[in-house]
Structure formats: C-alpha cells, structure tokens
Write a structure and sequence with these properties.
The structure is a single chain. With 83 residues, the protein is of the alpha+beta class. It contains two helices and three strands. It has a three-stranded antiparallel β-sheet, covered by helices on one side. A hairpin with a 2-residue loop joins strand 2 and strand 3. Helix 1 packs antiparallel against helix 2. The longest helix is centred in the middle third of the chain and has 14 residues. The radius of gyration is 16 Å and the shape is flat. The N and C termini lie far apart (44 Å).
Length: 83
C-alpha cells in the first residue's frame, strides 16, 4: 500500500519581478555566490569566498542593466533566478 498522500511538498512558485527590490538583489547575490563556489570544470571548491561571477552580477544591478528577472520561490524564499 502506497503512502504517497502523506508526503506533500510546498509548490514552487514562478514569477517575474522588478530587479530594484533589495530583497531580490540580496537573494540573487546569495544564490550566485553559493552556485559558483564550486568550479564546474574541476568540481573543486574555489579559492576564497567570492566567485568571479558575483562582481559581474553586482555590476549589472549597479548599472541598472537588469530591469526584471524571473524568480522561483519556495515557501516565500527566493531559491532560483534567471536574468
């Protein structure tokens, strides 16, 4: 007998948002930092705590080069984004 009905997951919500929201900016920085702490070519952790991609993302926001982005939220927390 299956017990599938007792395992319910919160739905992943997808939406488009403006990039001038400080919460969105901080979430994008956090996700970018975490995602690129591992070198995709070697599978090893990078040296230091600042991936080279993070200053690029920060520069895009500083120059208002991103007017909106697509985000995925889970239980109200931004867990992924697409510029």
């Amino acid at each position: 007998m299956s017990n599938e009905s007792s395992t319910r997951h919160a739905p992943l919500e997808l939406r488009t948002t403006k990039s001038d929201d400080a919460n969105v900016y901080e979430a994008v920085r956090r996700i970018t930092r975490i995602a690129f702490l591992i070198n995709p070519e070697t599978g090893l952790r990078i040296e230091g705590d600042t991936p080279t991609e993070l200053p690029l993302v920060e520069a895009l926001f500083a120059r208002n080069a991103v007017d909106h982005l697509h985000i995925a939220t889970l239980n109200g927390e931004i867990v992924a984004y697409v510029l």
